[in-house]
Amino acid sequence: MMRCIVALFLLLSAALALAGENCTVCHKKVVRGAHRGLPCLSCHLDETRTLANPASRESGAAGCVGCHKGYAALFDHAMGSRQGERDFVAASYGRVDKGFFGNNCGACHLGGCTDCHAGRGHEIGKPRDRDCFTCHKGYFVGTDYYGMAPREDSMRYQRGEVAYGEAYLKMTPDLHAEAGLSCGACHTMKSLAAGRKSAKVCTDCHEPDRRVPEHRIAAHLEKMECPACHSAWAAQEYGTFFLRFSNSPSQELYALRRDQAAEEYVKSAYLRRQDAPPLGLNARGMVSPIRPEFIAYFTDVRNDRAVWDENRLLAARWKAFFPHTVRRGTVMCEGCHENPRRFLLERKEERIYQLQAEGMTLPSFWDATGQQVVNGAFYPARRYQVLSGKTAEYRRAYLEKWQSLVNHVEASSAR
After folding, report:
1. With b meaning 16 or more CB within 10 Å and e meaning fewer, what string describes 131-163?
2. Which DSSP symbol is given to 272?
């Protein structure tokens, strides 16, 4: 009888052991961070059919969304789907190279939750700015928040300080960065999962100061996005060249960064600027900063000769955007009201770059002819005629602006 009881006890003990987790018998893993103390199967789901990567896009983040409800939707929005980039490539470089996107555009965007959540093995935590800047750097809005602008592609300019794998120019940072606000102050997980770029707009925190002359002009507040005036600078790339080489030793003569393109490609830009961005209309019809999404040129080089048109223009697309370079000060009145070039209405006699003389198709980068804004429109010429009229109201505001600057005296030293 006693033997039967002992045997039954051993069988029950074995069954209980099999029913519990025994992952760490083989897997010497220690869970740290936000998930410390959780059993393995909280994320890996099933011991017999273990989910190897519970945070991956392929699994729909099945190991995460059991607790973090609704966040699988992130994979369907811009960060995960890359639909904007895919559409652009399909309409441009993809026309001449079907594999272009996979070979040249696969480094960024969401592959799983741990891309952002400090995914070093089993150390899960809340995203930090440095996690965002894995992708949001260079020509993608992000590191400009901390005053980092992309350098030229030529290796002679790939020098100085490096952050997040990019050599950068030191520029004026966003005043919110100076105040200590991180990316998450405006870009919450809930807003991203809902497909919104941010959780807040400027007026959620700031009330326009009516003592500022510009804020007393109704059209400024009713028709303009805040960054149209308050963006100190923005990275702008005019003319993005991809050259594809086959059986062409001359490829080695190009002293350019080679980490931006597939092995058979060389990438460079005609011109890069880091000043106040041009203005157009966004999807809401509001005046907004715009810049080239890419003015895309392509050359196919075989046996060191261009196969057909050299520098063939494949797309000239602009995009309304929000530079993360906000400052309190703004441009003077004439910076918009007497500057048609800023609205891509450059006068022919004022052109400096003669693009057509160099076989680049467009009459000018700052002439809307042959170009488009994918999420808005260029500023209409007829509206600019009204904007540039020096009415009595404009003259009064202009004088008041200058008086406000003349009468504004900064303390010479701290007291």
Report:
1. bbbebbbbbebbbbbbbbbbbbbeeeebeeeee
2. E
